[in-house]
Amino acid sequence: MGILRSLLSLRLASLLALLMAIAAPAFSQTEEDPGQALLANLADASPRQMDAAIEAIVNSGDPRARSWLDAFGNNRLSRNKDTGQVVVVLRNVGRDWTIADPLTGENLGEISRRELDRVNINNAIRGKLEGVLAMLDLYSTNPEIQRTAAEAMMGKVNETVIEPLNNLLAQDLPARVRDRLELAVAIYQLEQGDAQAKADAITTLTGSLHSRARAALNNAVAGDDPAIAASAKAALISIEQKLKMNRAAETLYFGLSLGSVLVLAAIGLAITFGVMGVINMAHGELIMLGAYTTWGMQQLLPGQPGLALILSIPAGFMVAALAGIAIERSVIQYLKGRPLETLLATFGISLILQQLVRTVISPLNRSVTTPEWMSGSLVINDALSLTLNRLYVIGFALVVFAGLMLIMRRTRLGLEVRAVTQNRAMARSMGIKATRVDIMTFALGSGVAGLAGVALSQITNVGPNLGQNYIIDSFMVVVFGGVGNLWGTLVAGLTLGTINQILEPWAGAVLAKIMVLVMIILFIQKRPRGLFPQKGRAAEG
Amino acid sequence: MASSQTWLLRPLQERSTQIFLGVLFSALIVVTFLHLFMPQDSALHVSAYTVTLLGKYLCYALLAVAVDLVWGYLGILSLGHGAFFALGGYAMGMYLMRQIGDRGTYGDPVLPDFMVFLNWDSLPWYWQGFDMAWFAFIMVLLAPGLLALVFGFLAFRSRVTGVYLSIITQALTFALMLAFFRNEMGFGGNNGLTDFRDILGFNLRTDATRLGLFIATGIALAIGYIICRAIVTSKLGRVSIACRDAEARTRFLGYRVERVQLFVFVVSAMLAGVAGALYVPQVGIINPSEFSPLFSIEIVVWVALGGRATLYGAVIGAILVNYAKTVFTGVMPDAWLFALGALFVLVTVFLPKGIAGLLQKRKKAQDDDDPATAQEATA
User: Fold this and answer.
1) Best residue in A351, A476, A529 to probe B by mutation, most B CBs within 10 Å?
2) Which of A87, A109, A125 is at the close of a domain?
3) How many domains does chain A have?
4) Which positions carry the signal peptide feature in this UniProt record (chain A) (predicted)?
5) CB contact under 8 A, A343 and B163
6) Using alpha carbons only, what angle is made at residue B9 by residues B8 and B11, rounded to the nearest 5 degrees?
7) In terms of DSSP H, where are the helices of chain B?
8) For chain A, what is the mean pLDDT?
9) From the CA atom positions of chain B, what is the Rg in Å?
10) What pLDDT is recorded for position A8?
11) Fewer CB within 10 Å of terminal CB in chain A, N or C?
12) What residues are paired with A111 via a beta bridge?
């Protein structure tokens, strides 16, 4: 296969051509463009001559070669019957087709499709062309294109590309590209090579998590050679083991991610419910307000989702905290010491807030954009990749938790809150303004709900029902962890999230959720005060 | 023998019960009369639609009485009574499904339509027996009663009370809702059970059957009310009030608090089940949304509006709120949730004793005043 052998020299040649194209932009206009002859040659070629025609295009080192061959492979290369000019069809719908000049890329307008004569390609040529194009990309100086081409090589290696590939491997390559290509070659060798090559290939493939590698090994196990089959089997078993570990790591990651969402949603509740003893059924709606703040910020700053998201963190906190203060002042302060009534009144508030959002904004879900630096995923290996937005949420939850711990343990406000919680009358007689502490505590808990909303807007739908979906779960987390204990909330949230994710694969999402709820109900029977119960006088009442 | 009779009949000697039963039965008679004997075009005619609507309100009233029994007299705020209501409803719904026989869309003599649709080839074991009315009616009591027994046994034994109990009852009904939404459960999934034809051989779509169901609901409400009154005026009722006000002290006095709580809780769940069973044939459908936490908490606000620990207050609250709901959802559906939310807030903040509390206050004021001036005031 002459085409491919000649590709070796291509890198230099294409670089040269590129330089020329940059240095002499007038080149193609003033003199006869060599591309014209190349294309005409291709269009005129009989199927037998096509190899040579393609080879000529590749060897020319013309930077436009890729686009020509692409068009050719996609049946988009045609010849104008009148002028004999070779053109690229841009749009082939309807009677008149839009065409462009392949040499300059200039749009030549529309032309009746009867005027065009397609440059035909058969399947044999097409197969070779694909290999040629992939190789062209492998030689690309753009590392991104090179890597994608290397990925695409997996399982696509055939006798036409194996030799240039081996030559390429002898050169200096980025580690990732080399790794991919070695695997690709090994897969080919395992299928086609001699006994020694097969044995070597198995050694290379051992430990690879790529699905193609596993498929190739599976085929080898079913093959004729017992020695190869045995070693392939051993390789497969070790891969299986590694896969299992990766799956466990993935489940753990999803569990931690769900858990950190639960922690975020519940931690504000742990303050208002756990520390103040106020049942705030509108907590979910405060989360919703935080999420809508993010949406609103993005509406205010169109085109800058990242900045909007960062600004939403303080804004969401403030919006929810102010709403919390309004709720505390207007309703909760009158219901002190009547927890069941507080529950009902705040439930009423949650209904009003939900309906307010439905009426004012929309009953439909709003879409919140994820900034670029948060989308995508962190690829650990072929079987394990961690989505970035969830990673950020886990980090955010931990930061919020640490911040709250600091406030409760190290600041004047935290001290006063703990004092009022333990003995309100005594704290007041020591000069602490209990009412002010109530307001501040409730604002803090509500503000954290707002932060949860900002985080949730990145991983779930923002709609009027957002809060409702989390309120029962949040209460479960707080009750499971032990009321009045922030550490308990953290442990409970992460535990419940992980258990849920472990159960999900074999029980299904809904059943897993039911099982977790039933489990908590049973757990509460055994330990009515949660995982970490409060001790001493605080436990009463 | 004689003592048990007096135990149940004692409420009939109370003035409040007499008034309640008097009002209830006269309402039943008036509605029946207006429905049957007034000409169709008369302004006073009560249509079959209204009769069914009133029947629905009475079901809710019975449910509210059941909630008031545990909340008002036992101090347990159950946010999961909708689950017992729905279980009773499903038991009745299963009976009604089996009564359809081969008249369903797919014409299968045994399997309900949705099972045929899901390609099930035989009836699941828990559907057996529901073709017999007596079995279904026993299950109406047994299914919610059993759930309440198991749940209550576990909860009260480990002394889960107050807010904790409220939250786990809510989790209970939430878990059941998720479960019943699943097609694999065999209860019709999302769509629930519907398309009913007859009950006890009477066609459900005739006006006469609807009137009969309305009257039956009224009688059930009367009996439920008498049972609750009998419980709360008995010694057991006084112990249960003691549990509500000072659980620890009652326990120290030697009463087995958890047994009292369990008994009252199970009775209440069964009453809720009966209410659900009467609700389903009148509404014509039962689906998992009856399990939703929102519905359960709505029941509590009916009771709160009417006045806790009065029983008749619960009836007033249930009828008023549901009448308002009918009006609102008809005229301006968006405003209903605002109104309901505001109701929650206003009742708890400004009307902690509910409408019954207002009535009692007025009566007290009257009693304190000169009878003559009191009469002037009411005139």
Assistant:
1) A351
2) A125
3) 2
4) 1-28
5) yes
6) 95
7) 2-9, 15-37, 48-74, 81-100, 113-117, 133-157, 162-181, 207-233, 235-245, 247-252, 257-283, 293-306, 312-331, 333-350, 354-368, 371-378
8) 82
9) 22
10) 46
11) C
12) A97
Residue A525 and residue B154: Cα distance in Å, rounded? 6
Query: Alpha carbon of A165 to those of A54, A161, A388, A536: distances in Å?
Result: 19, 6, 34, 74
Whole-angstrom distance, CA of residue B179 vs CA of residue B167 = 18
More confident residue, B365 or A538: B365
A503 touches chain B (CB under 8 A): no
Minimum distance, in Å, between the CA of residue B163 and any CA atom of chain A:
7
State whether residue A360 sits within 8 Å of chain B by CB. no
Residue A195 lies inside a defined structural domain of this protein: no
| DSSP summary character for residue A387 | E
Number of Cβ within a 10 Å radius of residue B69: 31
What is residue B4's predicted lDDT score, i.e. its pLDDT?
A: 55
β-bridge pairing A96-100 and B198-199: unpaired
- Quote the minimal CA–CA distance from B284 to chain A in Å: 27
In B, minimum Cα distance to A522 occurs at: B154
Where in the sequence is the domain holding A43, given as residue range(s)?
2-125
Cβ of B168 and A511 within 8 Å? no
Residues A120 and A255 occupy one common structural domain: no
Contact residues, chain B, for A280 at CB < 8 Å: none
Task: Give me the pLDDT at residue A176, please.
Answer: 77
- Report ipTM (2 d.p.): 0.85
- State which of A57-61, A274-278, A324-328, B12-16 shows the largest mean pLDDT: A324-328
User: In the structure encoding, which two tokens stand for residue B160, read together?
Assistant: 């889960």
Q: Which residue has the tokens 């989390």?
A: A470
pLDDT tens track of chain B, all 379 residues? Answer: 445 557 777 888 888 899 999 999 999 999 999 998 888 888 888 888 999 999 999 999 999 999 999 999 999 999 999 999 999 999 999 999 998 888 888 888 888 888 888 888 888 889 988 989 999 999 999 999 999 999 999 888 888 878 888 888 988 999 899 999 988 888 988 889 988 988 888 888 888 999 999 999 999 999 999 999 999 999 999 999 999 999 989 999 999 999 999 999 999 999 999 999 999 999 999 999 999 998 999 999 999 999 989 999 999 999 999 999 999 988 888 888 899 999 999 999 888 888 888 888 888 887 776 554 444 444 3
A51 compared with B57, residue with greater pLDDT: B57
Q: Which residue of A525, A529, A534 is the best one to mutate when testing the B interface, meaning the one whose CB has the most B CBs within 10 A?
A: A525
* CB < 8 Å to A476, chain B: 167, 171
Best residue of B159, B344, B351, B353 to probe chain A, by most A CBs closer than 10 Å: B344
| Whether residue A261 sits in one domain with residue A121 | no
A9: in domain: yes
**Alpha carbon of B345: minimum distance to chain A alpha carbons (Å):** 4
What is the domain partition of chain B in residue ranges?
2-378
Please identify, among A90, A125, A160, the residue that sits at the C-terminal boundary of a domain.
Answer: A125
State how far residue B301 is from chain A, nearest Cα, in angstroms.
7
Q: With H, G, I as helix, E, B as strand and everything else as coil, classify residue B309.
A: coil
CATH of the domain at A267: 1.10.3470
Q: How many CA atoms lie within 13 A of A467 on its CB side?
A: 30
Place of tokens 């009006």: B327
The chain A residue lying nearest B303, using CA atoms, is: A344
**Upper half-sphere CA count for residue A14 (Cβ side, 13 Å):** 20
Q: Give a yes or no: residue A149 inside a domain.
A: no
Tell me what pLDDT residue A181 has: 80
Contact B171 A343 (CB under 8 A): no
Task: Place A379 in a pLDDT band, splitting at 50, 70 and 90.
Answer: confident
Closest residue on chain A to B164 (Cα):
A479
In single-letter form, the type of residue at position A145 comes to I
